[in-house]
Amino acid sequence: MRVRDIYVVGVASASFFMSYFSRLAWSIVSTYSSLRPTIVEDSIVFSLFFIGYVVVQVPAGIISDRVGPKYVIIASLIGLAVSSFVSGMANAMWVEYVASLFMGLSAGWIYPATVKLLTISFRGPELPVAMGYYSIAWPLSIVLAGATLPEICTVLGWRWSYYIIALTSIIIASLYVPTNVRGYGGNARGALNLKLLRNSDVMVISLSGFLFFMSYWTITLYAYKYFLSIGLNDYVAGLATHS
């Protein structure tokens, strides 16, 4: 890969990393939060994030195709930074709810836009290689969340977890400024094809993904507190949850 190609894969992967890292944060941070959330309140925070995340998926793909993924990703990262900062500043659970919803609304644009960025930046055999490197960001964010967030919360305080997410998001957004993305808009005039919903292959893949993530997130979002309750220390519980 050329230096320019490595840079594009790097910033796309870093963006994808932050979209996952931000949604994992509350599963650990809530344990240290001075707001003392209950299990029900934890669930509301998670649900609001994913409601926001889900509803923007299709618009994110369409708008990325029309205006270019670069600008969509920058705006998404800035939104993620602002909502993360508000989440760190929250002094009441209702503020945390609002911040979580907007965090999901911001993070949800990143995956479709970064995939679009890669598909217009790479051709032929280069694309699956680029996607392979890009895909590493997902498991890496899970592992690093478990390895770093308990230490950050213990040493700096739980609010700093969100402040660091906010700062990192701004830094990553700034890295897109020098990138020159061309070739988007090939499907800009195309309408959303709802006929795909009747395709059996699409339905099987969608249902499989739904079942996987339903079981996966149920474990990921609640396992940390369980491991603490059975006597594991903060760091070991974090690694056990996200590795």
Short structural description:
The chain has helices at residues 3-32, 39-55, 57-67, 69-89, 93-107, 110-121, 126-135, 137-155, 158-174, 200-229, 234-241. With 243 residues, it is an all-alpha fold. α1 packs across α10 (200-229) and α8 (137-155) packs across α9.
Describe the structure.
The protein is built from 11 helices and no strands. It has helices at 3-32, 39-55, 57-67, 69-89, 93-107, 110-121, 126-135, 137-155, 158-174, 200-229, 234-241. The longest helix is centred in the first third of the chain and has 30 residues, at 3-32. It is globular.
* Sheet having the most strands: none
Question: Structural class of the secondary structure composition?
Answer: mainly alpha
| Overall helicity | over 70%
Binned strand content:
under 5%
Morphology call: globular
* Number of helical regions: 11
End-to-end Cα distance, whole Å, is 30 Å
* Uncertain stretches of 5 or more adjacent residues: none
Spell out the key features of this protein:
11 helices; globular; mainly alpha; single chain; 0% strand; 243 residues
Topology of this protein?
Elements: H1 3-32, H2 39-55, H3 57-67, H4 69-89, H5 93-107, H6 110-121, H7 126-135, H8 137-155, H9 158-174, H10 200-229, H11 234-241
Helix pairs in contact: 1-2, 1-4, 1-6, 1-7, 1-8, 1-9, 1-10, 2-5, 3-4, 3-6, 4-5, 4-6, 4-9, 8-9, 8-11, 10-11
